[in-house]
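Hey forum,

I'm writing up a methods section and want to include a predicted complex as supplementary material. The small molecule is zinc ion. I've pasted the protein sequence and the SMILES. Can someone with a working setup run it? I'll credit the forum in the acknowledgements.
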Amino acid sequence: MAFVDLHLHSRFSDGTYAPEELAAQARRYGLAAIALTDHDSVEGCPRTAQACEALGIEFIVGVELTAEQEGNELHILGYCFDMENPRLLTEIARFQAVRQNRICEMVGKLNQLKVPLAAEAVFALANCRAPGRPHVARALVAAGLCRNLDEAFDRFLKKNRPAWVPKFKMSGEKAIELIHQAGGVAVLAHPGLNRTDEIIPVMVEAGIDGLECFHTKHSPATTEIYLELADRFHLLVTGGSDCHGLNKGKPLIGTVKVPYQHVEKLKERAAQIRTDAALRQLIVMRVDS
Ligand SMILES: [Zn+2]
Ligand SMILES: [Zn+2]
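Reply by user p_vandermeer:
Happy to help. Structure tokens for the complex are below, copy them as they are.
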């Protein structure tokens, strides 16, 4: 049986692997297909696609967008969209600017707390357009201001800690619409990590296509619950490791077993979304003429 990993991060967001390293790891663990799902970035996709092609691994374009619905932070995964879709790229650039401003605000708060970290140090370490809290934490450790990442989060960066800054988030509905208009499939990421399952019917109403049932932080029992919910709401099933690089000396990639059949269904749905969009375009043109 062939397996896939549809949730991976690279250096283009808060992962530590370069696209080529990610592809090499996928090869090492015998994966048939992978998707790159960086936070608010699609920049790593072309290089990962190229590296995968060289190794005979199928590559699926992806992204992980941060959204908010009824006070809950949600992550919405997009798959199989047009990487050059102008509206998607404009919105992503806006989210990246929000992230960069947030880094400056967090560093400002740290400086007020007499923690001498420079924003430039965080940006240099992040070396990407979508920096986030993990980069601030790594910079604090690198500068010897915290012993480890846990301390950085516990003392300063966790929600409601002194250097935490709230982040602007679009609604879940908007994230889904943004992915759909780019011809992609929208999936609710790691529902087991959200505070509530009541959000699932709301997202179904908003047009979500799938549920990430398989995830590193889902127990077998949790996975079963979401497989049942996906079935009940007629949603696609996806899954992945959410690998950000080395984790306690080992990468997570390949540790979540997602059968290849789910990729087939994902691609079918993407084709359907594009056909529907083309039909709608045709109808609009007929009405106009
Ligand atoms: Zn996530
Ligand atoms: Zn993720």
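Some notes you might quote in the supplement: The pocket of zinc ion (ligand 2) is lined by residues 7, 9, 37, 64, 242 (CB under 6 Å). The radius of gyration is 19 Å.
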